[in-house]
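pipeline: protein-struct stage 2 | run 1193 | Polyphosphate kinase
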Amino acid sequence: MIEHEVLDTGLDDGEDDDFDLEEVYDSELPEGRYLDRELSWLAFNQRVLELAEDPAQPVLERANFLAIFASNLDEFFMVRVAGLRRRILTGLAVPTNVGRSPQDVLTDISGDAHRLQLRHADAWTQLVKPALAEAGIDFLTWDELSDGERDDLYRYFQEKVFPVLTPLAVDPAHPFPYISGLSLNLAIRIRNARTGRQDFARLKVPPMLPRFVRVGDDSARIRFLPLEDLIANNLADLFPGMEVLDHHAFRLTRNEDVEVEEDETENLIQALEAELLRRRFGPPIRLEVTDDIDDITLDLLVDELDITEQQVHRLPGPLDLGGLFGLGRIDRPELRYPPHVPVTPFALQPAEQNGRADLFAAIRKSDVLVHHPYEPFATSVQAFLEQAAKDPHVLAIKQTLYRTSGDSPIVQALIDAAEAGKQVLAVVEVKARFDEAANITWARKLEKAGVHVVYGLVGLKTHAKLALVIREEEGTLRSYAHIGTGNYNPKTSRIYEDFGLFTIDEQVGRDLIRLFNELSGYAIEKKFKRLLVAPRYLRKGLLRLIEKERRNALDGKPARIRIKVNSMVDEQIIDALYRASQAGVPVEVWVRGICSLKPGVEGMSENITVRSILGRNLEHSRIFSFAGGGDPQVYIGSADMMHRNLDRRIEALVRVTSPAQLKSLEDLFTLAMSDGTSSWHLQPDGDWVRHSVGENGKRLVDLQDKTMANVQRRRRARAVR
């Protein structure tokens, strides 16, 4: 094993208590030093939109980015805007670090979000839709169809659509119907031809049918009609004897955040199931309507849904461009990114062709660092757990599960292990947002197979990505560990960029045994050796590491901080980085989403650089690198720099010690921060400026393509040897 200095993260380690952490907290920094987190999130989604607007991206990928933008914004309203509005209405304190009233923040959010939605709609109609047409993929309106095509689609309507439609009238005998969240609907005004009475009806566009209906079977061109357009032009079949006066599409977003008071319930699962039922009936947060809606219909919707004008978003049709995800079924590979073929790390490759790798033997030789999706999940993490389930020398498997698929081979491996008589512990986080119902389902499946399923600690989400295998070898028990930055989910591992470390380091093994005991029992662990664990020690451990860099810079020693996260929000961490910058420490932050830190402010953060990279893969890994005065301290793990991660979650970072692995992580970071790499640069005022083309007019390096090429190059170099 590689020798390394132990960073003791306990609270009573005298070596690290030779300075006062309150000095980091007690700031002399200026007011207004944070960017608003909600507006920063909208800026992130704008970066997604800019990829859709970029003609250099393959056109089907551009359509996919439009769908991602729409899905992201839906969740933003369901959770962030909903939570802010709920707290304002109930008089609860609203955390804000920008010195403005919560209502002003909400107004700004609504305005910026609406402007982005208009830009999103324009990107579809003016940019992506025409580009698809040039590639032979048309999106039509009913008026653009020939008579024969209308006849064919009418038959499709009668056979596939009409039977599942349910028009709901609104009159004295029929109250205004419940409108489910994110459903696409038609608001219809009709008139009785005999009495002249006008009524309103709501018709839900069936979500189980294709969002865009294929027109004809022309092999040369692929043509689609929006499903709501097909329905709208055949409303006479639904209201015989009535005159259809007008119809407009609308879509409602509801508050779908889930809150369970765990300390007031004896059964978390039952309480969560009840809360999921209540989620369906959460209060309205946003009403999207087409911009041609008439005042009568809009006034009715606003009144019946009890919403404000601020919550109404008028948009050009079609609504719900998340339906563009369905274009993934189109078989036109030339309109997508060239495929990346992942390469199994050399250490995990089988010794013989067509044989199976012995992952335990590989990990015994040295720590193994895997980088997904460039290196496959199936031949590393999945193979590790599958081998453990079958190995007669394995006595126990302990694992955290935050998000995974119901048919996951990870879940099956745990079931197989339990059925083989091994001790299996699964710490299941059933409160993972929007995966709650699925997690409950497969948690019960695990329990039925004999797996010991626990739900973590009261009041804390278990977000750490940990797997521990206890194996008997020559009369001695050895601990094989995997600590990752991403979920144990084979499906998302193909597009989520993450790291995972395999090790048999005894310190890591002891740390994980203690941590799992804390999660499953009543142990309160005070000491970890190679891990930084939230909520007790992670924030303090990082603050100490940042403070050491500040002191090293003042003492003339090598000093540098590099942090890669999804979000950078926590004020204490940000203030510590500001102080490090003031001492002359170069600070590089690589963030995918939210960043409340202001870089490049004279006297405060002129030594801080912030970059963001978005692309075909979702940058998801977390890296924390400190020069350490010549003794690098580098960690990977599950935690973002947010209050919830540091204060209300079980998170874990593990120290990487192998010189080769440290170089690999540093090389990746250097490539990401290079001016020759395509990225967005954060400005002091919160604007993100994209740098994708160099001064010579050539495209800058794509980090993800370059990383894949580097993996392939290393593979070829190994083959030559």
